[in-house]
Amino acid sequence: MLKKFLIGFVAVIVSLWFLTPVVLIVIASLTPSSDFYDPQKLFPTKLTLDHLYKLFVVLDGWKATLNSLEVAGISIGLSFLVGLPAGFALTRYVFPGKNAFRLSILLTRSFPVMIIAVPLLVLYIRIGISDTLLGVALAHTSMILPFVVLITSSILSGISVEYEEAGMIFGLSRFGAFAKITLPLALPGLAASAIFAFIMSWNEVFIASVLTLINRTLPAHILNTAMTSPDYFKFAAGTVMALPAMVFIFFTRKYLMSMWGISLK
Amino acid sequence: MVYRKDIIPFLLLLPTLAYLVLFLGYPLVQTFILAFTSDKGAFGNFQQLISTGEFWKTLKNTLLITGVVVPLQLVLALLLALFVNMRFRGYTIVLYIISIPLALSDVSAALMSYSIFAPMGYLNKLLLKLDIIQYPIYFFGFMFKTREFWVIVLTEVWRATPLVFVIILAGLQAVNKEYLEAADIFGFSAWQKFRKIILPILKPSILSALLIRTIFAFQIFGVVWLLAGRDIPILAGEAFYWQTEVNNAHMASAYALIIALVSLIISWAYLTFLKPAQGSTA
Amino acid sequence: MAQVRLENVKKYFGHVKALDGIDLVVEDQKFVVLLGPSGCGKTTLLRCISGLEKVTDGRIYFDGEDVTGLPPRNRNISMVFQSYAVWPHMKVYENIAYPMKIKKYEKSEIEKRVEWAARLLNIHELLDRYPAQLSGGQRQRVAVARAIVLEPAVLLMDEPLSNLDALLRVMMRSELKKLQERLGTTTIYVTHDQVEAMTMGDMIAVMNAGKIQQYGTPEEIYHKPANLFVAGFIGSPRMNFLEMEVQSKDGAVIFNSETLEIDCPKHLLDKIRDFSQNRVVLGIRPEHIHLSRVESAYPLKGEVYFTERLGSDTIVHFKVNEVRIVAKIPSDVILREGERVEFFLDLSKLHVFDPETGRNLG
Ligand SMILES: Nc1ncnc2c1ncn2[C@@H]1O[C@H](COP(=O)(O)OP(=O)(O)OP(=O)(O)O)[C@@H](O)[C@H]1O
Ligand SMILES: [Mg+2]
Questions:
Q1: Spans of all domains in chain A
Q2: How far is C47 from chain B (nearest CA, A)?
Q3: Is there a cis peptide before residue C237, judged by omega within 30 degrees of 0?
Q4: Does B130 touch chain C (CB under 8 A)?
Q5: How far is ligand 1, taken at its centre, from the CA of residue B185, in Å?
Q6: What per-residue confidence (pLDDT) applies to B277?
Q7: What is the spatial distance between Cα C156 and Cα C198, in angstroms, rounded to a whole number?
Q8: Chains within contact range of chain B (3+ C-beta pairs < 8 Å)
């Protein structure tokens, strides 16, 4: 009985510790400025969408959000297009150098992404894509791609080759069997990893800030304007950054452990 | 597996390889070139870097943050993992709540922390309201570097402990229940069970979590930049500063290279320390 | 329906010679079993025939047509996998219908054929379910239905019964066999269960180490094993092997070892005279050793060393001057350990092997 109570108590404390900052910033983003500067009002007496509105409309947050979505979209599309075949090769083929390839992919995960930002800027200026979303997306892809290769290989290896082979026996080509049998079976896992890739891109701030001046993604925009904005805009920004990531994580919670396991290996 | 001998697997790998060479390999080489070219010879940038004194402060800060944050995260994550692994009713909800920060960027984590510690943040308002203080306590600004430091530490601990937690929990779930039941039969105490059974089995997970976190802690940027700016200079922050504010790609590259170098050393340590351990548990 | 002919088929995985020159003719409409110990290359051979695996060397013909280079989909074969490989994201109906959908059959034709196959395998009530909602035996039937629905030229099965419990396995054994006889589909069936092979196969190909050791009817395999490997692999308990020397005694031929002496039976005399070496391995099955005198019986005295009661039979281990001999006797005879008994080898069932090559000299 006492043990049960203790467990419950600790569970509540732990949950509060991790939830409170999230809840607080959401509330802060909805607090009218008058209430915010009133030291007697710990919590607002009424809520307002003013700051969010201003962040989006006046401070160009809307554009930055769209930019972030576009960058994430391109990065995800590109990294799956490029990485899925490699993940497939890693699970379905035996070939010399396979382990070396896998290991070097793993190693890139401990590679600090900031190191590529500066030279990429130099390169982009030369080929005329500096300060473009495409440029940021290309850089993000190089960060996401190794993850996509490893995760797709792990997802595909969870799907028995025999399903695919049965497809080939019953009339499909090698590619057809992959597309019609394996891909549908892998879809939930692939969707989850796409969401995960989305979060990686959505949250990345260093590369995005270095590579762009005007066409900034949301985190880059916040990083470079937050210092000079009133506090309540910062809270609105933090909330806008946090919410989509949390919603997406919620839908992929079943895969959470294995994803992080792979992305950190 | 079909058509083992042919070139198809290499064709499938080719796009990935090409991409990584182009967007990871090439910039890496360029970073070297940028870092090692200056008006004053190949090592000019590094000479300037070391002579300013700023660099040593930067390195010290980065090491300090890493040294304080990582052990704290480890202990907290270990406790959390042991707790969640008790699998009480509703533990999946707690598990989900703990993993929320995993989805958050350093930018939003920093802003959350700011909402609490700002001059008119929740903490100050609470203390003011309870009449514990008369004037807000300032946590930010170059006059309050120590406070800034601890806020950063707290934010990092809050933000990245779940990461360590996830790795350790995965390791814990691999601990065979029968070992623990056997220990019960032999009358081990809870502490003995932890010391003699759980900890040795967890060693590879702990080591890998430790070193991964160390690598990432060395790259810390968003939290410090937002909360302290250059009050507390750190390596990645300096790289960013030299690039975006001074427009000196050479110095920025030199800083980036140092981060990469340290990461490389840590990765190397990680591989050499972990290899035997992995072999023995596999 | 087709005849399958393999010519010197080889398959190497790096240094592993999984198939080391296979020659095999499977006549049209026959049920052929590939039998052999684990790792001998049965699955590899089946996969080469299916086209899932490319051969390293050799040729494969279906009805005289060279199919060696064709992908599986152009070979008009079908397959039942060991794991069944019933697609989990399709209902039973879709699983069975899918091969026809790929080949763009008319909808009414598809319905008709699925109906036919489902009735044949008695899975009619299951058509609306997902594979996850089926038992192992039901899933196996679905796999078979899917495999026969298009009436393939060759049906390949890789240990399709190994995942079933003993009772269901025996039942499915006869059902599969009946089904094959009804459809007349040329069938190649992999198993490492010799009872399955004996009861189902029109012909059995016994394999070992990437080679076919013997290809024959179940009777031939059992009564005339081609070599030591086949003789030892087929039959339970294992055939007794005795290393002996060939000697002449009083004008007769005898087999002799330090502890045993056995007269050479008449049916082997000529073969032994033609054999140049003087060392041989004698083989006699435990079921051909009796406790009572039968015709052409050769008596031996031994001590009961150990007995295993199996219910219907009893396995007796005798010791004849330190040589162990195993016999299978009816269970109503009770023998005590240590008891000395006379038993009789049925010499008409005696085999003689060349110890060097393992070849059966009989
Ligand atoms: N993909 C492969 N790569 C390397 N070696 C292989 C591969 N597949 C099979 N082998 C090897 O080829 C040999 C034959 O394997 P195969 O699977 O055909 O045996 P099997 O007779 O089906 O055995 P079992 O009864 O255990 O299924 C084995 O030595 C095996 O290790
Ligand atoms: Mg096999």
A1: 59-264
A2: 10
A3: yes
A4: no
A5: 43
A6: 45
A7: 18
A8: A, C
The contacts of residue C70 (CB under 8 Å, 6+ apart) are: C51
- pLDDT band of B169, cuts 50, 70, 90: confident
Choose which residue among C15, C16, C208, C211 to substitute to test ligand 1 binding: the one with the highest number of ligand atoms within 8 A of its C-beta.
C16
Are C13 and B4 inside 8 Å of each other by CB? yes
Under the banding of pLDDT at 50, 70 and 90, the label for residue B274 is low
**How far, in Å, are A62, A104, A115 from residue A109 at the CA level?**
32, 9, 13
CA–CA distances in Å: residue C184 to residues B239, C67, C219: 77, 21, 22
- Give, using CA atoms, the residue closest to atom 29 of ligand 1: C39
Q: How many CB atoms lie within 10 A of CB B271?
A: 15
For a mutational test of ligand 1's pocket, the pick from C43, C156, C190, i.e. the residue with the most ligand atoms closer than 8 A to its C-beta, is C43
Compute the distance between CA of residue C162 and CA of residue C172 in angstroms, rounded to an integer.
Answer: 11
Biggest CA pair distance of chain C: 82
Quickly tell me which residue has 């981060």 as its tokens.
B259
**CA-nearest residue, atom 20 of ligand 1:** C39
List CB contacts (< 8 A) between A202 and chain B: 105
Q: Residue type at C326?
A: V
**In one letter, which amino acid is A119?**
P
What atom in ligand 1 is closest to the CA of residue C207? 21
B108 touches chain A (CB under 8 A): yes
DSSP per-residue string spanning B11-49: HHHHHHHHHHIIIIIHHHHHHHHHHT--TT-TTHHHHHH
Name residue C198's beta-bridge partners.
none
Mutate to test the interface with A, among C96, C102, C104 (most CBs of A within 10 A): C102
Please answer whether residues C227 and C360 qualify as being in contact, where contact means their C-beta atoms are separated by less than 8 angstroms.
yes
Neighbour tally for C136: CB within 10 Å: 12
- Distance from residue C39's CA to the centre of ligand 2 (Å): 7
Bridge partners of residue C319, in order along the sequence: C303, C324
In a mutational test of the A interface, the residue from C87, C148, C157 whose CB has the highest number of chain A CBs within 10 Å is C87
Choice between C42 and C275, residue whose per-residue pLDDT is larger: C42
Q: Which residues surround ligand 2, an ion (CB under 5 A)?
A: C 43
Ligand 2 centroid vs C123 CA: distance in angstroms? 27
CB atoms within 10 A of CB A4: 10
Report d(CA A156, CA A88) in Å as an integer: 7
Interface predicted TM-score (ipTM): 0.87
Q: Which domains, from first to last, does chain B contain?
A: 1-35 (no CATH), 45-104+161-281 (1.10.3720.10)
Range list of H helices, chain A: 2-29, 33-36, 50-53, 61-92, 98-108, 114-127, 133-157, 161-169, 174-177, 183-203, 206-211, 218-225, 231-251, 256-264
Mutate which of B1, B2, B6, B7 to disrupt the C interface (most C C-beta within 10 Å)? B2
C142-160 confidence digits (pLDDT tens): 999 999 998 899 999 999 8
Pick the CATH number of A59-264 from 1.20.1250.20, 1.10.730.10, 1.10.3720.10, 1.10.1020.10: 1.10.3720.10
